[in-house]
Amino acid sequence: MAGSGRKIYHVELDDDERRFLRDIVDGGKGSAERRKRAHVLLLSDRGRADGGRTDADIASVLGIGTATVERVRKQCVLDGLEAALERKAQLNRKKRTLDGAGEAELVKLACSSPPGGRARWTLQLLGDRLVELHVVESISTETVRRTLKKTASSPG
Q1: 91 three-state secondary structure
Q2: Is the terminal CB of the chain with fewer CB neighbours within 10 Å at N or C?
Q3: CA atoms of 156 and 154, how far apart (whole Å)
Q4: How many helices (H) and strands (E) are present in the chain, helices listed first?
Q5: CB 146: neighbour CB atoms within 10 A?
Q6: What pLDDT digit, counting tens, does each position of 144-153 carry?
């Protein structure tokens, strides 16, 4: 538990796991976050000559928080070595309103001639047309604006 100084989740690696983690850390395989997590596990290993370093020592050496060290150890013990090396999927992420094809359709519309009686496209008109064309079920003018800004396009 945090603050108690007593580890509840103890990492004990076998030789193959140590070799695998050293390859990640030394070989530069994967993202910086993956290498850092591998390093945490190597330093936490109770099979080390020093019996594994404390969370505070590991956090200090790697420049991360002790809570991160605790989380990586816990995930390794509960879910396995590979799970501890990867980021958890964010389950609460909102799905994008427009995918690549939808963005292309929006840009194509914005670059086309505006509807009859209009001098230019408005964000509302573009959003409404995307709904009419069944590109999306619904879309806010803010999403239309952000998408056009991101693609360096402008309505009209």
Answers
A1: coil
A2: N
A3: 6
A4: 8, 0
A5: 13
A6: 999 999 876 5
